[in-house]
Amino acid sequence: MSSPQFFTAQIVISLGAVAEAARVSLPDGVDSQAVISGAAPLESAGARDLAYMDNARYGDALAATRAGACLVAPRFAARVPASTVALVTRDPYRVYAEILARLHPDAMRPASMFGASGVSPGAHLHPEARLEANVRVDPGAVIGPHAEIGSGTVIGPNAAVGPNVRIGRGCAIGAGATIAHALVGDRVIVHPGARIGQDGFGFAMGASHLKVPQIGRVIVQDDVEIGANTTIDRGASRDTVIGEGTKIDNLVQIAHNVVIGRHCVIVSGVGISGSTTLEDYVVLGGQVGVVGHLRIGKGAQIAGSSNVNRDVPSGSRWGGTPAKPVRAWFRELTTLARLAERSGRDEDEPKG
């Protein structure tokens, strides 16, 4: 069986261009036209590869690397081998990401899995759907009446776009994703299996539970990324909103009427209950649970596996269950550890 490389570099790039992206000067005597043709980890990088390093855990790997060049944080620069060009920058990972995107533009978003242009055989477009030029639609995709899709967007195989949905330009909708009752901005990435715009979980509770019709929408603003198998419910009576530039990982649940601000980061396994608001630049670590009708302030960060059951002030860092400011959380953990240690010593002491 052959072993294909799914992502090969689309271009080569000069060391001078890498240094320019890092906003640093090349060391004296280094040829600015020397070619970088790939990117690789420290352990496997070769003479034409770019690597990066910003974590002390990989100090030994840095010292032994054979990379042609390495983006490196200042505190580790002395460990770069003489055979490797050190490009010293305060944010090596971010620069590495920029160079990687130039080398591998095809890895930036889901592409047509059928390798086709235009509307593929086996796709199902309603006659009243409107597609701008240069939209690609893979086999099995369904696009409903009065849906509108902007130029440069890719609709993956077996994806479903409901009636009246609007999808902007330069978007990528992954295989098997469903989008209904939604307005989607430009350059949005929806990974395979995501569900956007289905019912919110709304019932008038009683001896028998009466379903409450969910008549709102989902608004996804520009440059949002939504991970595989994430679900975003439409609003009950007002809209569920995902703000510009927000990045959502796989397997996240966002309930009806939730409003998420701009440039938030929401990691895998998070559940956000209905009518909660996240202001701009909020970060939720993996498996955070947020109860409904709360407000998490601008720039707040919540540690992974925490449970949030009250409002969180702007700029704060919280953690624990129930979540609290990290200093209080750490004091609590330290106190419990000391009590457990003391209790263990007491049990080990001889009796009588």
Automatic annotation (TrEMBL):
<keyword id="KW-0677">Repeat</keyword>
<dbReference type="InterPro" id="IPR020573">
    <property type="entry name" value="UDP_GlcNAc_AcTrfase_non-rep"/>
</dbReference>
<comment type="similarity">
    <text>Belongs to the transferase hexapeptide repeat family. LpxD subfamily.</text>
</comment>
<comment type="function">
    <text>Catalyzes the N-acylation of UDP-3-O-acylglucosamine using 3-hydroxyacyl-ACP as the acyl donor. Is involved in the biosynthesis of lipid A, a phosphorylated glycolipid that anchors the lipopolysaccharide to the outer membrane of the cell.</text>
</comment>
<keyword id="KW-0444">Lipid biosynthesis</keyword>
<keyword id="KW-0012">Acyltransferase</keyword>
<dbReference type="InterPro" id="IPR001451">
    <property type="entry name" value="Hexapep"/>
</dbReference>
<dbReference type="InterPro" id="IPR007691">
    <property type="entry name" value="LpxD"/>
</dbReference>
<dbReference type="Pfam" id="PF00132">
    <property type="entry name" value="Hexapep"/>
</dbReference>
<protein>
    <recommendedName>
        <fullName>UDP-3-O-acylglucosamine N-acyltransferase</fullName>
        <ecNumber>2.3.1.191</ecNumber>
    </recommendedName>
</protein>
<keyword id="KW-0443">Lipid metabolism</keyword>
<dbReference type="Pfam" id="PF04613">
    <property type="entry name" value="LpxD"/>
</dbReference>
<comment type="pathway">
    <text>Bacterial outer membrane biogenesis; LPS lipid A biosynthesis.</text>
</comment>
<keyword id="KW-0808">Transferase</keyword>
<dbReference type="InterPro" id="IPR011004">
    <property type="entry name" value="Trimer_LpxA-like_sf"/>
</dbReference>
<keyword id="KW-0441">Lipid A biosynthesis</keyword>
<feature type="active site" description="Proton acceptor">
    <location>
        <position position="256"/>
    </location>
</feature>
<feature type="domain" description="UDP-3-O-[3-hydroxymyristoyl] glucosamine N-acyltransferase non-repeat region">
    <location>
        <begin position="35"/>
        <end position="101"/>
    </location>
</feature>
<dbReference type="InterPro" id="IPR018357">
    <property type="entry name" value="Hexapep_transf_CS"/>
</dbReference>
<comment type="subunit">
    <text>Homotrimer.</text>
</comment>
